[in-house]
Amino acid sequence: MSARARFSALLLLAALCLPLFCIPGVAAPSSSPSVSAHSAVLLDADGGTVLYAKDADTRHPMASTTKVMTALVALEHMEPDTVISVAPEAVGVEGSSIYLVEGEELTLEQLLYALLLESANDAAVAIAVGVAGSVEAFAGLMNQKAAELGLTDTQFQNPHGLDAEGHYTTARELALIARAALQNELLLKMVSTRKTTIPHDGNDGVRLLVNHNKMLRLYEDAIGVKTGYTKKSGRCLVSAAERDGVRLIVVTLNAPDDWNDHAELLDYGFSLRESVTLCEPDGICIAVPVVGGAKSSVIVSNPEGLLRSLPKEHPEITSTVELPRFLYAPVETGETVGRVLFQCDLDRDGKAEVIGEAPLTVQYGAEQAEPPKKSFWQWLRSLFGF
Question: Per the count of CB atoms within 10 A, which of 23, 216, 266, 306 is most buried?
Answer without folding.
Answer: 266
